[in-house]
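Q: Here's a chain of 95 amino acids. Please give me its 3D structure as tokens.
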Amino acid sequence: MHYLGWLLKGALFILLLGFAARNSDVVTLRYYLGYEWQTPLVLVILVFFVAGAAVGVAACMGYLFRQRRELVAFRKNEQARKILADVSYQADKDT
């Protein structure tokens, strides 16, 4: 199983290396106010892929943090219920 993972990683590396080699032409990105950036096409694709992934992760973070807060509150509530149940059980047992 370990070798299969390395084989898949190697195949992915070879595919990406071939993609980078085939897309090494220089492209010009033109911005406002006459700014230009000349770089290989594969670098432009990589930059925009990473930026898109970062935006996607950032969009999910609010939802994940809200879930974490709710889970902490739920656990505190469960602990409080257990303590109250133990206290009431001890009170019933003493009487």
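Q: Can you summarize the key feature?
A: The radius of gyration is 28 Å.
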